[in-house]
Amino acid sequence: MSFLVVEKVGHHYFSPSSATKALEDVSFKIDEGEFVSLLGPSGCGKTTMLSILSGLIMPTIGSVTIDQKPPASHSNLIGYMLQQDYLFPWKTIEENILLGLKLNGRLDEVSQLTALYFLEQIGLAGVEKQFPRQLSGGMRQRAALARTMAVNPKLLLLDEPFSALDYQTKLKLEDLVFEILKEYGKTAVLVTHDIGEAIAMSDRILLFSANPGRLHKTFEVPSSLRKLKPFDARSTEEYNILFQEIWKELESLEENSGPKSPV
User: Fold this and answer.
1) Per the domain annotation, does 200 fall within a domain?
2) Residue 113 falls within a domain, yes or no?
3) Domain CATH number, residue 171
4) CA geometry: angle 203, 208, 214, nearest 5 deg
5) Closest Cα partner for 27 from 194, 213, 201, 153?
6) pTM above threshold 0.85
7) Which UniProt keywords are present, listed alphabetically (predicted)?
């Protein structure tokens, strides 16, 4: 039995005068510990799909189960990492990281020590009493990762978490997140517009078409690439071959897509 199952999901956005179809007949499965990226042109419903997986919205049609239960029943065990870090500026880094545990009623001495040890693991030792404004953008995203991982999520949802960073910092954080998720055996879904990022970090890539969003094609990342850190994977011939294949498919989708619908 797959860990995450999406069956014939469709979703509409309604306004007083119209209905916009964001997703239509989307089905896929993700195994526990797998890293899957959602890729596609603007308006293909990637972010809508991520919101459905998180339980933030219910699909209009179809179903989603995580470990054989609806996402809403796992609300405390789904981690969501966004493009912006959304750290509370008036709280210290330690207070920000422990906030999820506190809200879930799971903050105790053991969980606090575990969270602070993880902060040290990702290169942020000594910043616990500092405030977000005292950290660089890359350090803030690391802190956001620590906050997300502190609750020990079963599923990690990543919505373009590196897109606001400079390229060097982005590459470093790709490696860090990749290694952390592999070490802890986490299941992850990444939404990205970056083909290279999807190839370098994923086990599989789900390419969506737009208007409405449908699952167009699935790409398996070669096992030789999956063993490498994202930075190292980018310099291989297998990476270049898959990049060109996905690029051509994506170009074809964008050429054939009509007016853009909201995500």
Assistant:
1) yes
2) no
3) 3.40.50.300
4) 125
5) 213
6) yes
7) ATP-binding, Nucleotide-binding, Transport
